[in-house]
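Subgroup meeting minutes
Present: P.N., E.W., G.H.
Scribe: E.W.

1. P.N. recapped why we're keeping a running log of single-chain structure predictions: easier to compare across weeks, and new members can see raw inputs and outputs side by side.
2. G.H. added today's entry (334 aa).
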Amino acid sequence: MSQVLTTDQGVAFLRTPEAAFQGLPDFDHAPAYITFEGLRLAYVDVGPRDGPVALLMHGMPTWSFLNRHILNRLVAEGYRCIAADHIGFGRSDKPIEDDWYSILRHVAAQRALIQALDLKDITLFCQDWGGPISLAQVAEAPQRFARLVIMNTWLHHEAYAYTDALRRWNAQWQADGLFGLNVPDKLSLGWFMMVSLGHMTAQDLYGIVSSGTYPQLTPEAAAVRRAYDAPFEGLGRQGHAGPRRFPLSLPFYNPEGGAAADQARWFAALDTWTKPIHFIWGGADNVFTEDWGRAWAGRFPQASFDVFADAGHFLQDTHGERIAETFLARRAEP
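Output recorded in log:
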């Protein structure tokens, strides 16, 4: 177990040893850091400093590693790519108290990153919780952004209909739910990602919980599983407060912690966006469905909408290079 550290403000946190991040597949980029409320917020900054800026934001329960295929392809195209880790995830510090986390705090942390790097003319790539957190930046400082790429996410508003899958996800993270009871003692987040990425079945997941039986993975899948577990290596239950808090911040369950009113305001503000906007959607996602993605895209006359029928919720991992190619083709259109 890593040693519990404390900020000058008295916030207790854990810091993942850098050794946990050695040898990650397709992601050998060194981290940089800013300080937010006494905590380190990690990011990678790759590509030419004078290249067009791409900001890639992850959600739950991932980290910047999720965006590696998009990042590597865009860097080859001359982009400067910044991929950040939310506080509580990746290489960023991890406060151990669940109540430290809120969506507005995550929004403030990302705002601090954008301002510290003075990013301008940003092309934003966002998905899952990275959507509300980064689209808040667009709503509040649209002058910093040039183009949006929105993937399998949402912004809360009164008319939004939450799917059964998302309601089950919330229930599974409550104290008596599958993940609330078993993460990380019996079930690591890396093994959950193996189901989401198609490397094993939900039944395999239940087998891990019930009998400690782990399915055999290919060497490639095993390396990816380890990469998603790396941020929490040796941190125990205390180190999982960030992932635990996100599902319990869904606005239908926790309006205050989930910034329900603010999200509705950001959703309305985004309707005034007139610059390029591209929706790239995993059509096999039952959390944020294709129908919802198409309806959202339909609010923007300038929007493009591309659906990958065989892609699920974490399409950056499974279809990252295709996302980059689709974006580059759309960018080149008149």
